[in-house]
Structure formats: C-alpha cells, structure tokens
Amino acid sequence: MLSILCCGRRTKEPLVNRYASRRKSVFAETYDPEADDDDDGARAIFPKTDEQRSRLCDSVKNILLFRSLDKEQMNEVLDAMFEKKVKAKDYIIKQGDDGDNFYVIESGIYKAYVGEDQKHIHTYDNSGSFGELALLYNMPRAATIQAETDGQLWAMDRQTFRRILLKSAFRKRKMYEALLDAVPMLKTLQSYERMNLADALIPKTFAKGERIIKQGDAADGMYFIEDGKVSIRIQQDAGEVEISMLEKGQYFGELALVTHRPRAASAYAVDNVKVAFLQTDCFERLLGKVLDVMLRGMKHYRYVDQSVWKMILEACREENSQVR
C-alpha cells in the first residue's frame, strides 16, 4: 500500500509495539488508489462560516500531510472536516480501537499514552494532528489520546481521508516520477530513490511575470519545471540581463544549495509556470548521489564569480577522488 513520505520519512504519530493481543480490524481491507477511478462519488461537505473556515485554514496550514495538495484538493479537505469540541479528560482515541477519524488540533492540550501502564509519550499543545497511522495502514490505534484541557478539534472521516490523501499522493508520485524520468541528471538514481524524491516534491505555481527567486536571497530549495518557461536573469549596472531560458524538464536553484551561498541569479515566470519544489533538507538527503552530475553542469553557468568557480572545481575534484 502507498505510504506518504516527506524527505524520505513517513509522517508521524506516536508509535508503540504492535499489540500481542491484536484483534482483526473491521477496516482490514486494503485501498488501491490506482484502481480507484471514482472521482465523482458523494463527497462529505460540512458547511462552515467564513470565520470557521479561516480558523480551520490556520490549523491545517502547517500539517505535513496536506502540504502536497493542490488548491482544489485542499478545498475538498476543508469542506470535509467537521468541528469536535472536547472537555478536559475526554478520550479522543483509545489504543487498540479501529480508526474512524483523523484529527487536527485548533486549541487545547492533549496527551498521548501507550501500553498497559499508559506511559505518557507526547503532549500536543494547541497545535498538531494525530490519528493518521491507523487510517493510512489499516492498523488499530497506536496510542491513546486524552484531552488535558477543554479544546477544539477538526476531524475528517476515514473514507474521505484515505480517498483524498492516499489518492492524491499516488497521483502526485506518478506525475512527478514521469517528470523526474525526463531529467538526465537523475538517471543514476534507483527507482525507489526517485519515488522518495517524487514524494518530497511540493507543487507551486507562478503567474506570468512573477519572480520565483531573487538574486542575493538565501536559498531555501531548488525547482524542477513541470510546465511553462522560466527566465534566468542577473543584475548588472544597466539593469537585469537574461542569461538563460529554461523549459519543462529543466531545473534551477541548485547552485546556491551546493555552494551554500546566496542566489547568484533571479528567476522569473515567462508565462504561467508550474514547478516542483524541493526543500534544502530534502535536497541534501536525497540528491547526494547526483551531486557530481550537478557540479559538472554548473561549469557551464556563465553568471558565477571566480570564488564560486573555485568552489565548484574543488567540489568536482573531491567527488572524482571519492569515486576513484
């Protein structure tokens, strides 16, 4: 079954030993997103006021599970979530139970406990989410979650969670695998490494004329172009000068990550552009094997200064000596 990854790591819920007395779950069926073609089935919609929707947006904006969703999918998530008010000492989920809902915290303090002795392993303080593992992997609840204070949660039922999250992750992986297959420098990666890379990519869109990165800024990641054209420009005395035009299947932004220096050029969307964004920590984790290919490609960049050239050449020599 498909798992959702970020930078090669699965999303987290408190983990415990998987129950010696584990009973068969009523949710033991598998979900195959590739075989699920039902996009037009009934969707859960819970009406919300503008104020409620705004609060919900604030609660989910930093949830890793939702980070790869596009705008339409995110709206479907917001529509499908319902409010759940809790009182202090209420049990939200109990270890060993079947999974019914996924929860996002808006307010309140919640404690996670595991084992027969109910060992306290984690405290959620007015933010975070829990309950995804049982839904993703068809397992009983891995921990007990109890409200320490009064609070408010947003919940999504299991069926909607699996359809939106698993199916969107599957589609994203397939789409990005096709994109990455067209990038020559990634040919040396194994299939599973490309899958991990595909799972770590974040979709972003930029309107015509919009600046994507700015010369001199600190680097936060690199970009693979899905659709559209990107103009690479450098600042000179007479103004910005275009030095390269990039298209689908090409990438940019890696120079600052490799050299650990500010952006050497700016990038602009020539038309409406879709890119797949790879964050710095994921870049370092997932693309180490192709660093030498990147370094060789950088030798052709015309806009780097002598100190950066020296750094690139030294890095290339280090890579070559390691290969030998």
Q: What does this protein structure show overall?
A:
- With 324 residues, the chain is of the alpha+beta class.
- The protein contains nine helices and 18 strands.
- The strands form five sheets. It has a four-stranded antiparallel β-sheet with strand order 3-10-5-8.
- α2 (71-80) packs antiparallel against α4, α4 crosses α5 (191-200) and α8 (291-298) runs antiparallel to α9.
- Residues 1-28 have low confidence and may be disordered.
Can you describe this structure in just a few lines?
The chain has 324 residues and is of the alpha+beta class.
Features:
324 residues; alpha+beta; four-stranded antiparallel beta sheet; 9 helices; 31% helix; disordered N terminus; repeat; cNMP-bd_dom_sf; nucleotide-binding
pLDDT < 50 runs, ≥5 residues: 1-28
The share of residues in helices is: 25-40%
**Order of H and E elements:** EEHHEEEEEEHEEHHEEEEEEHEEHHH
- Mean pLDDT equals 79
Q: Please give the largest β-sheet.
A: 4 strands, antiparallel
What sort of overall outline do the alpha carbons produce when their principal axes are compared? elongated
Secondary-structure-based class equals alpha+beta
The end-to-end span amounts to 40 Å
Strand order across the largest sheet:
3-10-5-8
Instruction: Tell me the total number of β-strands.
Output: 18
User: What Rg is obtained from the alpha carbons, in whole angstroms?
Assistant: 23 Å
Q: If helices are DSSP runs of H or I spanning 4 or more residues, what is the number of helices?
A: 9
Range of strand content: 25-35%
Family: Belongs to the cAMP-dependent kinase regulatory chain family.
Pfam family, one: cNMP_binding
Keywords: cAMP, cAMP-binding, Nucleotide-binding, Phosphoprotein, Repeat
Protein name: Cyclic nucleotide-binding domain-containing protein
